[in-house]
Amino acid sequence: MSTPLLQVKGLHAQYGPTRVLHGIDFEVREGGITTILGANGAGKTTTLRAVCAMVRTQGEVWLGGERIDGKATEAIVRAGVAHVPDGRGTFMNLTVDENLRLGAYTRKDKEQVGEDRERLLQWFPRLRERLKQQAGTLSGGEQQMLAVSRALMLRPRLLLLDEPSFGLAPRIVQELFEIFGEINKSQRTSMLLVEQNAALALKLADHAYLLETGRVVISGSAESIRNDESIRRSYLGY
Ligand code: ATP
């Protein structure tokens, strides 16, 4: 086993008085892909928001041996965590290119920023065709590609993906997930993927956690969960 890049211990989260996460533990390996599965309202989105300090938390969050809980979201981004929220998170009034450049705002290595932009445009050629277009005019799939690209322009150590398949046509989802796999392999970008489409997520991920009302009820290798018919039937609905 390689060392975890992200290690979360006893994480609680709440919105005002409403407690949503009740002490969850999970990890993302260096270079790995972890998925968090669960029904609507289980706390998946909140888990990603908790890692980025966008919600009140208790517990420990470690990134590569450094404790990041208690830091501001901005500092967590600078530490190398990029978040693609549900609902995409692009700046609709800016062009595709402006969105991409904004993604790299914390970086000083301008030459490599240019190379990364080029690589992303090779992965997502549709964005190249639309560089000067306002993000708000893109299709849902293109907006998701832009949101992911913008996050990758940060050259993150860890990419947090919230329901990237949501609302997209199956063909686009397939394409997007293939590219996630390629990015993970070629750049060793670690990923924490929240998904309702369990079958899809378990194909991409190496490790999975199943959340139920803010608690981890099952965890294991993605392969073992994929092959466990009773878990699939009882929890994952396929
Ligand atoms: P979904 O797939 O529907 O987004 P989820 O597993 O991501 O589900 P969360 O969005 O994390 O679940 O929500 C977990 C619980 O927290 C739900 O009961 C939800 O109603 C509640 N919740 C989410 N956001 C807020 C908020 N801003 N204020 C109060 N409660 C919230």
Automatic annotation (TrEMBL):
Residues 6-238 form the ABC transporter domain. This is ABC transporter ATP-binding protein. InterPro entries: AAA+_ATPase, ABC_transporter-like_ATP-bd, ABC_transporter-like_CS, BCAA_Transport_ATP-bd_LivF, P-loop_NTPase. Keywords: Amino-acid transport, ATP-binding, Cell membrane, Membrane, Nucleotide-binding, Transport. GO terms for molecular function: ATP binding; ATP hydrolysis activity; branched-chain amino acid transmembrane transporter activity. Belongs to the ABC transporter superfamily. The keyword ATP-binding applies. SUPFAM superfamilies: P-loop containing nucleoside triphosphate hydrolases. Pfam families: ABC_tran. GO terms for biological process: L-amino acid transport.
